[in-house]
């Protein structure tokens, strides 16, 4: 099985930046597609971005496209979410997830999840 641990969350002002990291262990990281999802209080968990196992194909939710960038470092078993121009609407717990097939925007398709890291953006 795969273990995932997110880090890098915090409190920032609108317009600021955060860099989230997801460290993976217990599996062949290079063989997994990765996803970032977020969940705000009272809301369903929603797709933020996905990255293929190759790292060549990324998909972004319309709400974050142009502001967020996802990348992976297979040598370090890590995926990074760089978040710029943050908005109060980005406030949520951010989760890293992994699956052994092609990337999916559906949370239910992911078998492995981290514990989440809180991102709070003040206005």
Structural write-up:
The protein is mainly β. Helix content is 0%, strand content 50%. The protein has no helices and 11 strands. It has strands spanning 3-7, 10-13, 18-25, 33-39, 46-51, 58-60, 68-73, 78-83, 92-99, 112-113, 117-122. The strands form 2 sheets. Strands 2, 4, 5, 6, 9, 10 and 11 form a 7-stranded mixed sheet that branches. Strand 5 (46-51) and strand 6 (58-60) form a beta hairpin. The chain starts with a strand and ends with a strand.
> Which residues sit in consecutive blocks of at least 5 with pLDDT less than 50?
none
Strand content: over 45%
Structural class, from secondary structure content? mainly beta
Calculate the terminal CA-CA distance, rounded to whole Å.
40 Å
Helix segment count?
0
Helix content: under 10%
C-alpha Rg, in Å?
13 Å
The number of E-state strands comes to 11
In this structure, how is the largest beta sheet organized?
7 strands, mixed
Query: For the residues shown, what is the average pLDDT?
Result: 95
Order of helices and strands: EEEEEEEEEEE
Q: What spatial form do the alpha-carbon principal axes imply? A: globular
